[in-house]
Amino acid sequence: MTTLQDATKTPPPNQVWRHQDAAMQASGVDACPAGWPRPRVHGPPLPWITPVLDGVVYWTQLHGGRLLRCQQDHLCQVCGERLPERMLVLADLDGELVTDAGMHRRRALLSLTVCEGVSPRLLLAEVTPADLRHKGWPSPDPLADRWLRWGLTPHAVAGAARVGTAEADRLLTLSAHRRSLGPGQNEQETE
């Protein structure tokens, strides 16, 4: 089983995920199914939006269909499961999201731990869908049939923390991700 990308066999970058979906349809086996814990293929745990085809992980690419589902159905980009109303996102210093979808707290912690591209030049923010923008405007409802580039509202950028700081660590703690279940009930972790 090969893990290096062979240029003679590799589909064009924007087609890898479509080939993955076709292989999944033919075999009935999802190489990177939704859920937690995340599967591994010769390395760190795989985000749900990372294409995997024939045992090869395409780390620098996104599964466009799954990213669209994350945006439309409010799913976590790392595990593919439903997000709570408040989620974590990674953005650049201008407030543009790195991968245009949210994450659970524990999944964001995994991303910050294993992803090579995550650096202190990025922001970690806890947001709701109302804090997301597309070209400066609120995201359309319903969302388009293609994934959208997302950015944060100025308020969300101002409240974001630089990756690697104590403030970012605070966002990753359980206390930042609790929600009330209703009158008289205790708070519960929403991950």
Q: Overview of this structure, please?
A:
It is built from 5 helices and 10 strands. It has 191 residues and is an alpha+beta fold. Strands 3-4-8 form a 3-stranded antiparallel sheet. The radius of gyration is 17 Å and the shape is globular. The N terminus and C terminus are likely disordered.
Which key terms come to mind for this protein?
single chain, alpha+beta, three-stranded antiparallel beta sheet
Short summary:
By secondary structure, this protein is α+β, with helices and mostly antiparallel strands. The protein has helices at residues 16-27, 64-73, 105-114, 154-158, 166-171; strands spanning 52-53, 56-57, 87-92, 122-127, 132-134, 137-138, 151-152, 161-162, 178-179, 188-189.
Task: Itemize the secondary structure elements and their pairings.
Layout: H1 16-27, E1 52-53, E2 56-57, H2 64-73, E3 87-92, H3 105-114, E4 122-127, E5 132-134, E6 137-138, E7 151-152, H4 154-158, E8 161-162, H5 166-171, E9 178-179, E10 188-189
Antiparallel strand pairs: 1-2, 3-4, 4-8, 5-6, 5-7, 9-10
Radius of gyration: 17 Å
Structural class: alpha+beta
Query: What is the count of helical runs?
Result: 5
Helix content: 10-25%
What portion of the residues fall into strands of 2 or more residues?
A: 15-25%
Detail the poorly predicted runs.
Answer: 1-8, 179-190
